[in-house]
Amino acid sequence: GHEHIDYNNVLMPSIFGVICFFGIFGNCIVIYTIVKKTKLCSQQTVPDIFIFSLSIADLLFLLGMPFLIHQLVGNGSWCFGGTMCTVITALDSNSQIVSTYILTVMTLDRYLATVHPIRFKHVRTPFMAGAAVALVWVFSLVSITPVWMYTGLMHLKDGSVGCALLLPDPATDTYWFTLYQFFLAFALPLVVICGVFFKILQNMSATVAPLPQHSLRVRTRKVTSMAVAICLAFFICWAPYYILQLVHLGVQRPTFAFLFAYNIAISMGYANSCINPFIYIILSDTFKRKFIVAIRPSHRVFRVAPALADGSMRSLDLRGMKERRRDEM
């Protein structure tokens, strides 16, 4: 009917467009801030590496959205060719799994940071974090093999071509593929993340042992609460999609209401990639500081000490002044 046309041509593309715009903008801010910070003080922290990788995965996920919007407006027709169809679909599935598993690794890192702050110090290095992220990418690219193999162009009723996952035996394969995706990209990470956060909370409520100094404790707690917020946002945004995927297995002819709910669920999944940067900006004071440093024009850093009336340079190094004063005493 008429509402279908409005819905496909106006409502969904607008929702997707807004998510896409804010998401790309937010993730670019995060990536820029971390790159700039690393350049300035050339030290990356472990959370930096996870947040940076998550933003890259989110950004890749969102960059595929304009193609989807185009497909929605064009009633399912795809005009970018077979290769792009495979690449965009694979990027889409890949980013979904990469972000889930980066969150899982990030949670494990929070566990080591809060429960064993000293014992695993040598494990929680930027190098190990980078290696973990690289492994997640490899694992993900392998896990989406069905997408690489079976995504392709299909002929639509109106004579145009669409882009879809064309499994060899749709009836049974769709069933198994949906379950595979549900467990791999949602249920398994959810169980791990909840279990780990439960252990962290248990530890936080029971700690009387002399932990490292107070400021470090406060910082660890802040980073941990940010990790909790990111994981919560992830599961709230993706749960409707995976639940409807499972429901869809039992639905023979989806109604308009079901399709509407399904599209809203998809947009919530995309919205997750758009929300993350704003969670960092709201919850992390350090991130806010780094962000302000990153966008400030850099020429102010090189201020020359004003020459005094007698032409000598005023000492900016207070430590040097203290040493001298001690010599004079």
From TrEMBL:
Topological relation to the membrane, as annotated: Multi-pass membrane protein
Pfam families, A to Z: 7tm_1 (PF00001)
Keywords: Cell membrane, Disulfide bond, G-protein coupled receptor, Glycoprotein, Membrane, Receptor, Transducer, Transmembrane, Transmembrane helix
GO molecular function: melanin-concentrating hormone receptor activity; neuropeptide binding
Residues that span the membrane, as ranges: 15-35, 47-69, 81-106, 127-150, 179-202, 223-244, 256-283
InterPro entries: GPCR_Rhodpsn (IPR000276), GPCR_Rhodpsn_7TM (IPR017452), MCH_rcpt (IPR008361), MCHR1 (IPR004047)
Superkingdom: Eukaryota
Domain G-protein coupled receptors family 1 profile: 26-280
One GO biological process term: neuropeptide signaling pathway
CDD domains: 7tmA_MCHR1
Cross-referenced Gene3D superfamilies: Rhodopsin 7-helix transmembrane proteins (1.20.1070.10)
PANTHER family assigned: MELANIN-CONCENTRATING HORMONE RECEPTOR 1, NEUROPEPTIDES RECEPTOR
The protein's name: Melanin-concentrating hormone receptor 1
Organism: Seriola lalandi dorsalis
Highest classification ranks of the organism: Eukaryota, Metazoa, Chordata, Craniata, Vertebrata
